[in-house]
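Async update (no meeting this week)

Hi team, since we skipped the sync, here's where things stand on the single-chain job. The sequence we agreed to prioritize is pasted below, unchanged from the tracker. I ran it this morning and attached the output directly underneath so nobody has to dig for it. Comments welcome in thread, and please keep replies under the output.
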Amino acid sequence: MAQNIRRKFGNVWRHLPHPFRWVIVATVGSTLVLLGIVFIFIPGPGLPLIVLGVAILATEFAWAQVIYIRIKNETDKLTARAKKAFKRK
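Output:
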């Protein structure tokens, strides 16, 4: 059921004209990034919203894809260091 819905959404999304997709992605991604920045200063899920916003922006924008790849690489490095630190104990 969920795959069927996902497939239908993907078909509709791909058939939208590029300017519409661009505006939707820019609006949703930017809103999440801005909310994440606000939530850094007030209690809330700041960093996850920023990463999610950048991931959404990366679907349409090359500059956001570069940032997202950097975030993924740094997260992988941090995870590897944490695993190594926990294995020592």
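Quick observations from my side:
The two ends are 45 Å apart (CA to CA).
The CA atoms of residues 35 and 49 lie 7 Å apart.
Reply here if anything looks off.
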